[in-house]
Specification:
heterodimer; A: about 575 residues; alpha/beta; Beta-Lactamase; Helix Hairpins; Heat Shock Protein 90; 4 domains; seven-stranded mixed beta sheet; about 20% strand; B: about 120 residues; mainly alpha; Four Helix Bundle (Hemerythrin (Met), subunit A); about 80% helix
Chain lengths: ~575, ~120
């Protein structure tokens, strides 16, 4: 019995030991599993955070939709930023996105999500009105069905913003359309222009032929010569208009600023127009109203061109017995500037509303105008360009069969009372007679003909002329001369061996008392500002364009040698 | 006005503007026109174009443009300017087109210059 008790106690002890060991093991296992799960959870949590961070920062939106539960299982956190709809709202109502899109899409999405479950990937483009920004955005919607044992249980939905691509496509489409339109316009222009150009040329040739057949008939010959003169002027105007348009395109149209009296200008202008109007049996009237500041600074040539374009159209499109008016007034003054208004009105044939919208587009004309009256369709576009260049505005109102009114507002600078007008400066220059007999010039020119012309132009000024046929010779002559021997160097830019730029640079680098101060004037057949800029950068003081005009050269030399304050004409 | 100058006017040369620039010296103008017959720039330009030396061609076209402007050969000047632009932009199709007309114009002027340079004229 004692043995049984011992065995019993021993057995119970063993069982306890086992249980203790088991509990301990389970405890250790539990701790281990807890730690492991915690680590796994942390990893899952970390990955979810990474994914959310990815989704927050990109513009694409991801959703996972459970078809069975009709619930959003995942939605990227960037919907507020990209669609203007919060992810919470979308979670509550997955179809809320499509409330802001077209009705057709809403119906389609309803069908896909409820009835006709997709078995293949689906893609569609749509527009959506962002409820926060109220901007229309282009989206691409992609739906990927997820299968589980051949049953679609989820949709993975990706929404991407296509707006920028669509805008770029639209820009390209517009550019292509514009290019096609421009091409069409050019073709039309060329066919129209060839007629416009040929007509006066045919007149010239025809009249010349007729004149040659009637050499003994003075009256006939005189009539032919008059018609040749008119046709030639028309052709010249046409070519000038075309050149002006191309100048505008190449940005080489520049305005001058000269003092002038506006009333005097208008009276002169008016007298020319009146003569033409009388020939057409029309009435032309000039009205000048409330001009306080008569002495202005501006480009009278371009102002004349602007008014002439408008008034010429008025004369052209007003029938016999009609009226054309030019009214000019000073509207207001601020500081040293004054706003002037020029109103040209007529009671002629007028223009349609549709045409007024196109009036400033080059080559556009009403069809019946082109047929009946001809013309290039460039006058008004050129006028607008010039007005804009002068910082002004132009407005047109018109009614078919009633007439047209063109209003032009331009700001002019008010000239100071002591400002000298060009005419006076020119007269002064004539009185001076440009006597440079005490001065010496070095002309550097490789072409004999050009050299002879320049020398001949300079002869009346009595300046002592020394010549060099290239840059090397010029450099040698300058290096070996005494200080103040030459007052000025006139140099061609395009020369072989050493061009004008290189020669000027070499002269500046010489160890000669005059090397830094000698004035170098470059001559070039290129009139573009670019070459002038390069010339001035390359140690050249002035740039003059070939063919050299006498007055331009003399006034420049006068400014350089005698009076730096002298205005270059 | 000298009959030789009139022949130049007939072919569209802007004689008056150049003669004015030369202080009315018509005789000098005619002698400069004769000099043009011996000017090499057109020949050098054509050689440069044939050998595709466009840098040299640019220089010769530029010089030809300047001389044409100085002598009132307006059409020649305009064509030289167009050719110069074509060379600079490497627009070889347009270059061929303009060179054809430039050559025509050059020979048209030269024909008249040769005629007026003839002592019998």
């Amino acid at each position: 019995m004692v043995f049984h008790l011992f065995v019993g106690k021993a057995f119970a002890g063993s069982i306890s030991m086992v249980l203790i060991i088991l509990s301990l093991s389970l405890f250790i296992l539990a701790i281990y599993l807890e730690k492991k799960f915690a680590k796994m959870n942390r990893n899952i949590y970390y990955r979810e955070e990474l994914f959310n961070s990815l989704c927050s920062n990109i513009d694409d939106i991801f959703l996972i939709y459970h078809i069975g539960n009709h619930k959003i299982e995942y939605i990227s956190p960037n919907t507020d930023r990209t669609l203007g709809i919060s992810s919470n709202n979308i979670k509550k109502n997955p179809f809320i996105i499509f409330n802001y899109s077209e009705n057709d899409l809403k119906t389609e999405i309803n069908r896909i999500f409820t009835k006709d479950i997709l078995l293949e990937n689906y893609e569609t483009e749509c527009k959506l009105l962002n409820p926060k920004t109220h901007q229309l955005v282009w989206l691409i919607l992609r739906i990927y069905p997820v299968l589980d044992r051949q049953t679609v249980i989820r949709y993975i939905i990706c929404i991407s913003d296509l707006t920028k691509e669509k805008q770029s496509q639209q820009i390209l489409k517009d550019a292509l359309l514009n290019a096609q339109k421009a091409n069409e316009a050019k073709k039309e222009f060329l066919s129209h222009m060839s007629h416009e150009i040929r007509t006066p040329i045919n007149t010239v040739l025809g009249m010349a032929q007729i004149a040659s057949n009637y050499l003994d008939n003075k009256e006939k010959v005189s009539d032919c010569l008059n018609k040749i003169s008119v046709a030639s002027k028309n052709l010249l105007t046409l070519v000038n208009n075309i050149l002006d348009m191309s100048k505008k395109d190449s940005s080489s149209l520049q305005l001058t600023k000269e003092p002038f009296h506006i009333c005097e200008f208008l009276f002169t202008f008016s007298s020319i127009i009146k003569t033409q109007a009388e020939l057409n049996q029309q009435v032309f009237e000039l009205t000048i109203d409330q001009i306080q500041n008569d002495f202005l600074l501006g480009d009278t040539l371009r102002l004349n061109q602007i008014l002439l374009n408008c008034v010429s159209n008025a004369l052209k499109f007003t029938p016999t017995g009609g009226n054309i008016k030019l009214e000019v007034s000073e509207i207001e003054k601020h500081g040293n500037k004054a706003l002037f208004r020029f109103t040209i009105s007529d009671n002629g044939i007028g223009m349609s509303k549709e045409f007024i919208e196109k009036i400033f587009i080059p080559f556009e004309q009403e069809e019946f105008i082109a047929k009946k009256y001809g013309g290039s369709g460039l006058g008004m576009p050129i006028t607008k360009n010039l007005v804009t260049l002068m910082g002004g505005n132009i407005y047109v109102t018109s009614k078919l069969n009633f007439g047209t009114t063109i209003t032009i507002d331009i700001v002019f600078e008010i000239a100071k009372p002591d400002t000298e007008i060009d005419e006076d400066a020119k007269n002064i220059s004539k009185k001076l007679k440009y006597d440079f007999s005490e001065y010496r010039i070095l002309i550097v020119e490789d072409n004999d003909i050009n050299l002879e012309i320049i020398c001949e132009i300079l002869k009346p000024s009595k300046i002592t002329i020394d010549t060099a046929s290239d840059g090397l010779e010029a450099l040698e002559k300058f290096k070996n001369c005494n200080a103040s021997y030459y007052n000025i160097i006139l140099m061609d830019l395009q020369m072989p061996k050493m061009n004008g730029y290189e020669t000027a640079k070499a002269i500046r680098e010489l160890n000669h008392p005059d090397s830094k101060k000698i004035c170098i004037v470059a001559m070039s057949a290129d009139s573009f500002a670019k070459e002038a800029d390069i010339a001035i950068e390359s140690n050249i003081n002035y740039h003059i364009t070939k063919p050299v005009e006498t007055e331009d050269l003399f006034s420049l030399l006068y400014k350089i040698i005698i009076d730096p304050a002298y205005p270059i004409i | 006005m000298d009959i030789r100058t009139e022949k130049l006017i007939e072919i569209g040369v802007d004689v008056q503007i150049v003669v004015n620039r030369l202080g009315g010296n018509e005789a000098l103008y005619l002698s400069l026109c004769k000099k043009f017959l011996y000017d090499n720039n057109f020949k050098l330009l054509q050689n440069a174009l044939i050998s595709q030396n466009f840098t040299a061609a640019e220089g010769f076209a530029h010089t030809l443009k300047g001389i044409a402007a100085n002598l009132g050969f307006t059409s020649l000047e305009i064509l030289s300017r167009s050719l110069l632009q074509d060379i600079r932009l490497q627009d070889f199709r347009s270059l061929e087109y303009h060179n054809t007309y430039l050559t025509e114009e050059y020979f048209r002027i030269n024909t008249v210059l040769m005629e007026i340079s003839n002592p019998e004229c």
